[in-house]
Q: What sequence folds into this?
DNA sequence: CCGTCATTTCAGAATTTTCTGAAATCTATG
DNA sequence: CATAGATTTCAGAAAATTCTGAAATGACGG
């Protein structure tokens, strides 16, 4: 591996982190490298930069493309494929969340739903179903919320985040206003 | 493994999902089992239920306790340790988020910050720093937001989720009101 | 279609992670 | 403080994953 020290640290950290998620070291490193690279890289560039085998890079790129985290980018007059990461970090966040949801949350939800359909054969199963139902309810709320806010333009999403817990003040204010209006109408 | 079918499916699913996160199969299964169990279980109960070795259970329980996802619960007149999961799913969510943040996000933030302190030695490093800075900014926003809303009582958090993207309407309304008031004062 | 360069596939090697059984340690009790 | 039950530790076995090199496949220009 022969990279500027700053890039190397970044790449190595992503490699380590990758393994804490389901992602393997090389895949993490490839992503990190493409992310900070000023121009698209081809597979051999990556081989040189990371000192891993050509085939390993090929598989890693395939996985990253399946996640929509890396895109092929054609370079004129060059037969080799080149790759980049999308550069809007907010969009990257959405992609990452979408993909994790698709792979991890959705299948879980569907298993839980299925289990909730079954008729419990014992007190123990009845209790299990009650617990599963709580979990299902929570996950469903979270995903509904996510699907809702993921559509917001970056601008508004950022505003929302910046507001943080203070939204609740806004909520209180709204309730107050609604209460006032109701009171006036009904009183 | 000899469990009611419903419980067995749930446990097996968690085992599989576990491996997609950083968590290993047995740990996932132990958690799932305790989660749906009507009463606290001791290590041997778990050995019987999951057909894994005693030592594996011991290590799994240790890991789950380190994550604060499983608690020891003493049963009177029984020398053996028993274990449960906290039962408020909202609290479980907070715990899970806290722990993942602590293990994955915080170390990353600190690496990124460190890299941003360095003086870039080339154009390439300068570009890398710009990219790292974008990522750092995003993660910092997200964690600040998280630290903010994690303190909300369940009630309010649920209300917030239920509102979803409609909060932005509220935001617009607020801006309007503020605008009106300003207008009146200044006009 | 042929030759060249690029990419993918895949069987097995290398590595890492997980799991086990035996031994060590810990803990309460008589 | 000896003993029996409970738990943990840990070295190595077993399993799973990652990685590689060689061969196959694909793609393009002539």
A:
């Amino acid at each position: 591996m022969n990279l500027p020290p700053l890039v190397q640290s970044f790449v190595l950290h992503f490699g380590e982190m990758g393994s804490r998620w389901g992602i393997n070291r090389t895949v993490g490193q490839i992503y990190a490298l493409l992310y900070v690279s000023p121009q698209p890289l081809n597979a051999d560039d990556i081989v040189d930069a990371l000192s891993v085998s050509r085939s390993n890079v090929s598989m890693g790129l395939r996985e990253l493309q399946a996640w929509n985290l890396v895109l092929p980018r054609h370079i004129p007059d060059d037969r080799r494929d080149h790759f980049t990461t999308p550069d809007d970090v907010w969009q990257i966040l959405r992609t990452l969340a979408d993909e994790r949801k698709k792979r991890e949350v959705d299948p879980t939800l569907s298993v839980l739903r299925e289990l909730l359909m079954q008729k419990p054969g014992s007190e123990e199963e009845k209790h299990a179903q009650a617990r599963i139902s709580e979990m299902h309810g929570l996950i469903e709320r979270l995903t509904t919320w996510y699907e809702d806010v993921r559509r917001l333009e970056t601008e508004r999403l950022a505003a929302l985040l910046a507001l943080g817990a203070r939204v609740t003040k806004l909520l209180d204010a709204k309730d107050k206003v609604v209460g006032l209006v109701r009171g006036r109408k009904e009183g």
Remarks:
- Chain A touches chain B through 67 residues (CB under 8 Å).
